[in-house]
Amino acid sequence: xxxxxxxxTARGGMTSRGGGRARGMGxxxxxxxxxxxxxxxxxxTISCGKLVLKEGDWISxxxxxxxxxxxx
Length: 72
Description:
The chain has one helix and seven strands, in the order E-H-E-E-E-E-E-E. It is mainly beta.
């Protein structure tokens, strides 16, 4: 978490461990993204609805709206 610019979690909320730590570190956090699926067995892909990412891809997080977008 120290080197991350923002935090994205599949579970939790504003008072979850990830949300609390991110807030304490002054970082953006989108927690409780129910549509987030992390496929460790399928080449470390992450899908969030129609958005499919590979390890190393950059994303943008909007902590106010909870939006997750690809940063190309």
